[in-house]
Write a structure and sequence with these properties.
There is one protein chain. The chain is of the alpha+beta class. The protein has a single domain, classed as Roll (Thiol Ester Dehydrase, Chain A). The protein has two helices and six strands. The longest helix is centred in the first third of the chain and has 16 residues. The chain is globular, with a radius of gyration of 16 Å.
Amino acid sequence: MQETHFRHTLPIQLRFNDVDKFGHVNNTVYFSYYDLGKTEYFASVCPHVNWEEVGIVVVHIEADFAAQIHGGDHIAVQTAITGIGTKSFRLLQRVIDTHTGEVKCTCTSVMVTYDLVKHESIPLTDEWVEAICAYEGRDLRRK
């Protein structure tokens, strides 16, 4: 497997409510960070999408927690697409400490493009595929 180079990094501001009674960020909060990363990734890479008609939905997600995030930490979420199918794509994300580079958590997910009007999955458009491959710097289509 090729090592992933993360071209998209989004600094995250920790909120008071993110930290639990143990003094670290609760594991459920990480998924909101990953959602922010996905949102900003697509706003950057595919800016002309009509999000009222087309969406992307999570069909599989898993996370590996490597280290705690504490309230005073400085973090960012990094996002990359690692593979593209006909109607789906694989997303790799991680939360890192921006001062040390330490990986706090890694998340993989499978996303499906979805017609919000007809309520069914749809193929990724050529425009999306080309924009993602250009941004990531390589052809990600499954062969």
